[in-house]
Amino acid sequence: MLKNTGAIMNLYDYNTINKILTSHGFTFSKALGQNFLVDPDVCPEMARQLAADSETGVIEIGPGIGVLTKELCKVAGKVVAIELDKRLFPVLRETLGEFDNLEIVEGDVLELDLSALIAEKFADKKSVKVCANLPYYITSPVIMKLLESRLPIDEIVVMVQKEAAERFCAEIGSRESGAVTVAVNYYAEAQMLFEVTKDCFYPSPKIDSAVMRLKLRDKPPVEVQDENRFFAVVKAAFAQRRKTALNSLSSALGLPKEKVLSALAAIGADERARAESFSIEELARLSEIL
Q: Does 3 have pLDDT greater than 50?
């Protein structure tokens, strides 16, 4: 837990942020995708969308200087923030010292055993949720780890690059859908919540962001015999988006076109159809046939 310093500060004020960071000799790391939220409306709204209470444990990924963390601590019973950059620890002790329901864990979320972390840190909580402003460069790997690990979490509310959010939340069978759309929807119900412009960050990035919710499913919407095979077929179908599913599947899976044609005919698909036109049920049937 962080030691209470008795200090309450405005983390949305540029001068305050600069003063804090300068006092700790902190400089931004482009490699870690560090762009901190400074809009006073975004973080409270993310915390509200999470709908946490005293019986809720929240995992935050990459607290930065603690802007979102502060709002999460106000509504959740306990917050565990995972931070890779050790340089931020003294900053967080200063900015979040008022909260006794916060614990900072050092580590890379992609390498940590999250199941063990949840069992250890949230044993007395009825539900566990994830909330984060994710660096763009690790968005998909982090989200897929959270989903594929089948962790005992209820939902994920995250801010990501707007383009990525649109792809995650696209309707399967629409032109905007892709392999990641299918993968996300296999594990969770995806919903776009609101957009966040680039001027809400410090330093300001070059692109806009969006906040989305992933509500984890009790069971997938389709039943497949082999998940690895299912996702391999989905990935192959979308591998060459400008080509037909016939050509993409044949090329990516190394299958004769005659076999792929037969499989497409079995699900009632035209040989000129593209992968984005398929429903998740059709993709599941296709994977079983192939």
A: no
pLDDT at 109 over 70: yes
- Helix residue ranges per DSSP H, the chain: 14-23, 42-50, 67-75, 89-95, 114-121, 139-148, 162-168, 179-187, 227-237, 245-253, 257-266, 280-289
Q: What is the pLDDT of residues 21-40, one digit of tens each?
A: 889 888 766 554 556 677 89
Strand partners, 195: 210
Token pair, residue 8, equals: 């309450």
Q: Are 118 and 153 in contact (CB under 8 A)?
A: yes
Which residue type sits at 189? E
CA distance 146 to 109: 9
Contacts of 187 (CB under 8 A, 6+ apart): 147, 148, 150, 214, 216, 217, 220
The distance of Cα 135 from the centroid of its chain, to the nearest Å, equals 10
**Could you give phi then psi for residue 238, rounded to 5 degrees?**
-95, 5
Burial 173-207 (b: 16+ CB within 10 A, else e): beeebbbbbbbbbbbbebbebeebeeebbbeeeee
Backbone φ and ψ for 282, nearest 5 degrees, come out as -65, -40
What values do phi and psi take at 161, rounded to 5? -55, 135
